[in-house]
Amino acid sequence: MWTREDGIKLYLLSILNDITRPFRTFARGIENLITWLPIIWNDRQFDQAYMFEILIKKMEIMEKFFRSENTWSADALIYADQIKKTRETLQYINDEKYHEEAFELYYKVYPFDEERFNKMMNNQPYEKDSEEKTQMFRDSMAKSEKLYIKAMNSFCRDLKEYSRGWWD
After folding, report:
1. How far apart are CA 140 and CA 152, in angstroms?
2. Are 98 and 151 in contact (CB under 8 A)?
């Protein structure tokens, strides 16, 4: 049962909250500036990787929040796991791990030849690739593209399916 004293305490806490809110908002803004400055500083307009870095950072911050004691959501840990999965898929794309996977065998069979590469870059004569090497390269590129599309579809599907629920 609520007493008159409980009402007064609640009213005073409400006033205290109203007085301190601008200071808390300001402190949160400063914290955001410090958190985001390195990401924004390194941002460029010519490559999707920079856009992905912004999304990855945002999802890292959100995941940390949903794993913290500061959330009211009963499903906070579920949201945190969804965010982590989505972020890790985007990180896989941004780090071009799909390309590494697709070319793993190719680079074992045909290790990088720096001397040949430098000749190519300087328009000097160099030995042409065998048909077998060319075909293996094409196959690896096709596999890389398939892995990219699979990962991107997974990321987009998860973002579409889950992100509307990521709020507290």
Report:
1. 18
2. yes
For tokens 């460029």, the residue is 44
Q: Are 66 and 80 in contact (CB under 8 A)?
A: yes
pLDDT digits 0-9 by tens, 104-148: 999 999 998 898 888 888 888 888 889 999 999 999 999 999 999
Half-sphere exposure of 124 toward its Cβ, with a 13 Å CA cutoff? Answer: 7
pTM: 0.82
**Secondary structure, 3-state, 41-61:** HCCCCCCHHHHHHHHHHHHHH
Distances (CA, A) of 20 to 51, 97, 110: 35, 47, 65
